[in-house]
Design goal:
With 335 residues, the protein is mainly alpha-helical. It has helices at residues 5-14, 46-64, 68-71, 81-93, 131-146, 161-170, 193-206, 218-221, 226-238, 245-272, 275-286, 299-304, 321-334, and strands at 21-23, 26-28, 32-37, 101-106, 152-156, 309-312, 315-318. It folds into two domains: 5-158, Rossmann fold (3-Layer(aba) Sandwich); 190-335, no CATH class.
Amino acid sequence: MLNEVLPAVANTYYCSGGSGRQRGGTVLSEPNFLRVDCLDCDRSSGSSGLLSGFLVELKRSAADQQLFAAASTPVPSDCSAVAMDIAIRDFMRRLPRDRLNFLLIDEVQSFYLIERPVSDDGPLRGPTLDVNAVLHMQRILKQLLLDSPHWVAWAVTGSSMATVWANVAATPTNGFALSMHNRQLNLSPTVSMGVLQVAWEQLKAQAATWDRALPDDLVWRSPPQVAMLAFLCQEWRYSRTASTAAELVEQSMTQKLIPEVLADLRMALQVLGQPAAQLKLLRELLDPMAGVQPATLPTALKAHFASCGAKREGRLHLDYPLLAQVLQRMRASMR
């Protein structure tokens, strides 16, 4: 979605008919797309270390796009978070002003998962999250997002979006709530079998030259989601432990997807506070006979589950089988 679909849609919009789109009487040229995977940024050196790595990745992407003015942005010798913040703003000002420059940021939760530095005395004991650094990063990232020049647009995603939304909600308002100054692209957790079948035919065509043919039953054993089906196809291509579609789906769910969602929810509930009460709310959301009053749901959870919520008789319900499995495990671990 971030690296393929969004650029294709943006190019179609701005370059339709070859004439571009107008903004304030100016014809906009074809956009630039700069890509950063935040997993490549160091989370163990405080907010300054992560921002420094982020700037380096931005510069590398700019160089790949031959945007040499931005690529030559100086990296400060002063490694403070404030200096890095200023340098990233400088980078954005150096980008071309005759077109939109999309910053496509993946694994954005890394900004909120900064680890406490390891001392020479030995390994850390207790929680590894550097809470003070995360609080500092909330304020820095908010200003970077809200104060970007008009020729820069951010598009962010990640594998731990509950953590992201919890931190967005926890970011100090100071005049502007960050949650009110972004647009969400909500993807449904499920699609119809017809839609899945169309995606399946395309995926089979792409896999025609693979050494390992896709198993015919993978499409109906997969959770009903295009992204998950595409992921499973790639896993099948390189898997050395799954010999059937059933084994592949089971391994992917138990060894990757459920643990990943579980860790994300635990972190989000920790940020929101009162994790036991929030967990009770989530269980009621998933109960078809219960549901919750929308006003009782924290803003972060509303944003995270916006694509799969439905109102019935004034109460909000979720149809999200994967989340139900994850909550069962959370209940067991909290007893």
